[in-house]
């Protein structure tokens, strides 16, 4: 698929619904984005109510598979209806067959395998439905839960950058992880 997926509504896994954001997500979204623990390795700081309102206002116009743009997808627990985090996907402007993934869970919902389940389901959408060639994710080398997650879902560490980013007042080191469609297929036994 090489056009924006305007039809995207939601996809499901065993315990989760990955869906478009709604106005009612504002409070839980603000709560986890404003949490300094959640923000530590993210590119925001002091996330405010106006920041959250701007996000919710703008998120409707985002569609997956739009070259050069991020799509943000809310993660909801099926059994309770709670919105517990989000996945973000950037379709690369210079080669839309490649995408970058990001993910965030509220602190209360970490440690239950929800991020693993959400990312595995998203990989299925990316490779089986959108037929992407390659997905990458980049993380601060100090963010152990993030790269542990990448390894759990079968991503490969392919770069270790030293002091490549000026991040929150100091030079930071980053890992880049990737998975190819062929690797995803092999993992799925195809
Ligand atoms: C990165 C992040 C999403 C990882 O969250 P997480 O809760 O560690 O990951 P999961 O939801 O997959 O849960 C895995 C943990 O739950 C445990 N677990 C419990 N039930 C499980 C199940 N059914 N399936 C898999 N794991 C399960 C695992 O053993 C693992 O625990 P461990 O870390 O003690 O080994 C989270 O730390 C986060 O949101 N951080 C802040 C935002 C951020 O930094 N994002 C990344 C930017 S690059």
Features:
190 residues; alpha+beta; Aminopeptidase; 8-stranded mixed β-sheet; binds coenzyme A
Structural class: alpha+beta
Fraction in helix: 25-40%
Order of the strands making up the biggest sheet: 1-2-3-4-5-6-8-7
Number of helices: 6
Look at the structure and give the mean pLDDT: 96
Task: Give the overall shape, derived from the CA principal axes.
Answer: globular
Low-confidence stretches are: none
| Rg over C-alpha atoms, rounded to the nearest angstrom | 16 Å
Q: List the ions, cofactors and other small molecules found in this model.
A: coenzyme A
Number of DSSP-assigned strands = 8
Fourth-tier CATH superfamily name of the domain at 10-138: Gcn5-related N-acetyltransferase (GNAT)
CATH architecture of the domain at 10-138: 3-Layer(aba) Sandwich
Sequence of secondary-structure elements: EEHHHEEEHEHEEH
Ends distance = 20 Å
* Amount of beta strand: 25-35%
CATH class of the domain at 10-138: Alpha Beta
Q: Biggest sheet, in brief?
A: 8 strands, mixed
Might you state the CATH topology name of the domain at 10-138?
Aminopeptidase
What does this structure look like?
- The chain has 190 residues and is of the alpha+beta class.
- The protein has a domain of 129 residues: Aminopeptidase (3-Layer(aba) Sandwich), CATH 3.40.630.
- It has 6 helices and 8 strands; from the N terminus they run ββαααβββαβαββα.
- The protein has an 8-stranded mixed β-sheet with strand order 1-2-3-4-5-6-8-7, sandwiched between helices.
- α4 links the parallel β5 and β6.
- The two termini are 20 Å apart.
- Bound molecules: coenzyme A.
- The site of coenzyme A (COA) has 20 residues, from β5, α4 and α5.
- The site of coenzyme A has 20 residues, from β5, α4 and α5.
